[in-house]
Amino acid sequence: MMGGMPTRPSHSSEMAAMTEHTMDRPVLQAMASPGDTALRSVSLPDTSLPETALKDSASSLAKGLSLLELFSVEDSQLSVSEMARRSGIPKSTTHRLVGDLLAWGALERTPGGVRLGVRMFELGHLVPTQRSLRELAVPFAHNLNEVTGLTSNLAMRDGQDVVYLEKVSSRTLQVPHSRAGGRLPLHCTALGKAILAYSAPAFIESVLAGALSPRSPRSITDPQLLRRELAHVRETKVAYDVEESQLGLFCVAAPVFARRNTLVGAVSVTGATELTQAQRFAPAVRMTALALSRALDDAQQLHVRPRPA
């Protein structure tokens, strides 16, 4: 007390008092001098999520994604009960997950249940490799459609499937088994065989050693027969599918490469004729693949910075 007035704590005392409530032990120990007894460590509470909560969150995400995988060309609309039955997820949990997916926009309601929402379409078009390849290839696919009068397709590999990036339909022929964003097995499509033939040897062997499930009675399911066909594709630069993915239809495809001979996908046309007729369209498909490969090479070179001298 001085002159009847309480003394104000010193600035250093205030800082010490504040520090002990706002900083953790190791920090305080590092700041305090060896003889400083004013600083006392106070540990902060742990605000991180418990490990069980993190695992539950990851599990819910995986379950939600597995529900999205239930949709296909044939099953574009599903009820919640059917989704629970197919996924094996309890119905109450499925209801909750579907509600979350609806709120986010991954699903949208229909009179009979739910279907994939516009948000999924928007995200799909943001995938860099698909977007750059598709944007450059669309004019080539349209030109191939006009020249041949057949449905033209552009696809790339994802796992052991081909994923259709673009499909320009013929006005005179319906091709119901494929769609942009859809997928089919590599081994029973011309697009898939054109890609598989130029894939890494180890990947080819993994496909040949796996289950070559048929899509039609004419699908190739014999590994040795498929191996010989892939060798022929590498010789001719063209692959054929004659009723292997859909009865009554043929497909002829050619691989597409980018800079430094990097395989990026394949182009094809689909028609309703036999192999002898399909072979008539092979030159047009092959030339389109070559032109697209050159365009991709040129486009990538524009984005390569020259090395400093």
Characterization of this structure:
This protein is an alpha+beta fold. It has two domains: 61-123, Arc Repressor Mutant, subunit A; 126-302, GAF domain (Beta-Lactamase, 2-Layer Sandwich), CATH 3.30.450.40. Helices cover 46% and strands 16% of the residues. It is built from twelve helices and eight strands. It has helices at residues 11-22, 25-31, 51-68, 80-87, 91-104, 118-124, 128-148, 190-196, 201-209, 223-236, 275-278, 282-302, and strands at 107-110, 113-116, 151-158, 161-168, 183-185, 239-242, 250-258, 262-271. It has a six-stranded antiparallel sheet. The chain has a two-stranded antiparallel ribbon with strand order 1-2. Helix 3 crosses helix 5 (91-104) and helix 4 crosses helix 5 (91-104). The longest helix is centred in the middle third of the chain and has 21 residues, at 128-148. The termini are far apart. Mean pLDDT is 78; it is low at 1-42 and 302-309.
Question: TL;DR?
Answer:
The chain has 12 helices and 8 strands. The chain has helices spanning 11-22, 25-31, 51-68, 80-87, 91-104, 118-124, 128-148, 190-196, 201-209, 223-236, 275-278, 282-302, and strands spanning 107-110, 113-116, 151-158, 161-168, 183-185, 239-242, 250-258, 262-271.
Helicity level: 40-55%
- Sheet-strand content, in percent, reads 15-25%
Unreliable spans:
1-42, 302-309
Q: CATH homologous superfamily of the largest domain - what is it?
A: GAF domain
Order of strands in the sheet with the most strands?
5-4-3-8-7-6
Task: Report the biggest beta sheet as strand number plus sense, adding barrel if it closes.
Answer: 6 strands, antiparallel
Number of strands: 8
Name of the CATH architecture of the largest domain: 2-Layer Sandwich
Number of helical segments?
A: 12
Quickly count the domains: 2
| pLDDT averaged residue by residue | 78
Helix and strand composition category:
alpha+beta
| Secondary-structure element order, N to C | HHHHHEEHHEEEHHHEEEHH
